[in-house]
Specification:
309 residues; globular; mainly alpha
């Protein structure tokens, strides 16, 4: 695939050179629907147009940053940490050129994932704090600013939990919950990510990372997956719940969550981290109904370009 090799022709698939207003929302919709295979097919042209757009000025750089964030997130799902870090760094550069704190916040969140996975949670927290502080300078924040601030706080809470910093994790999580409540009270329509359900979802992972499995499972039990707006988020809830249940020794219940995950977003079930969970379930309880079929069905398959996903 062209985005993997770094080839970025100015023209792709007969489309114009620059990003159209609909390009990033359409690509983001594929991501949130868990349709990663189709998204990968769209990436060569998207990258080509983003590369041209980021040269046109702050507005174009901002749109390009959104593309780089999306590619970083997809790479993280594929466990390709080097690529995730590379595109997150590119997103940060473009976001700074855009001059928009909300875009820089998205880039910081993207960068936090590969940083955490290579043991640099402290650096990730620094980036997230800086992004959060930049958003706090708004005297009358818009819904978009509140959404960005809350999501940065949730990412920081999870990062702090992974770094075994319970006080910081709780402070960031509480801040996000307050921001979500403020956003709800404003009654301003928003297409953002922040919500009470999103905060609950993050709480599952936060308390799992802190070793408080009972509290993590309590949040998981209270979380209504239908309150999460996209298949990708519903699958994430099932993943985090399955991981916590496995840690608590509830293997059959973890398997139920993996089945829910596959129903919500089948391509999520082929992610390396999810396959690892399924393999652990199969190893610990090979007698579970259809567990062998599940692991075979969710095995990685070759893509058209020869790569395995």
């Amino acid at each position: 695939m062209l985005w993997m090799t770094g080839t970025t022709p100015a023209m792709a698939n007969g489309r114009g050179q620059h990003l159209a207003d609909s390009d990033l929302p359409a690509a983001r919709q594929l991501f949130t629907a868990g349709n990663y295979d189709q998204l990968r097919q769209e990436l060569p042209g998207l990258v080509a147009r983003a590369s041209e757009s980021e040269r046109t000025g702050p507005a174009g750089a901002g749109r390009a940053a959104g593309v780089w964030v999306l590619i970083s997130q997809l790479a993280a799902k594929d466990a390709d940490i080097e690529r995730a870090a590379s595109f997150a760094a590119r997103a940060g550069t473009s976001a700074r050129r855009s001059g928009r704190p909300t875009i820089l916040a998205a880039a910081a969140r993207a960068a936090a994932t590969p940083l955490r996975r290579v043991g640099r949670a402290d650096t990730a927290l620094q980036l997230l704090r800086e992004a959060h502080d930049a958003l706090d300078t708004h005297p009358r924040p818009t819904a978009a600013v509140l959404d960005a601030a809350g999501m940065v706080a949730l990412t920081a809470a999870y990062t702090a939990a992974q770094a075994h910093m319970p006080t910081a994790a709780e402070q960031f999580a509480a801040s996000a919950e307050e921001t979500a409540a403020r956003l709800l009270r404003s009654r301003v329509p928003t297409s953002g990510e922040l919500s009470a359900a999103q905060c609950q979802l993050y709480r599952v992972g936060i308390h799992h990372k802190l070793g408080d499995l009972d509290r993590a499972l309590a949040y998981a039990a209270d979380l209504e997956s239908t309150a999460l707006p996209t298949p990708e988020r519903q699958a994430r809830a099932a993943t985090d719940t399955a991981r916590t249940l496995l840690a608590a020794g509830h293997v059959p219940a973890a398997y139920v969550q993996l089945q829910l995950l596959e129903r919500a977003a089948p391509q999520e079930a082929r992610r390396p981290s999810v396959r690892a969970l399924a393999a652990e379930v199969a190893a610990r309880r090979p007698d579970l109904p259809c567990i062998t079929a599940f692991t075979r069905r969710t095995a990685p398959r070759p893509a058209r370009d020869g790569h395995t996903y």
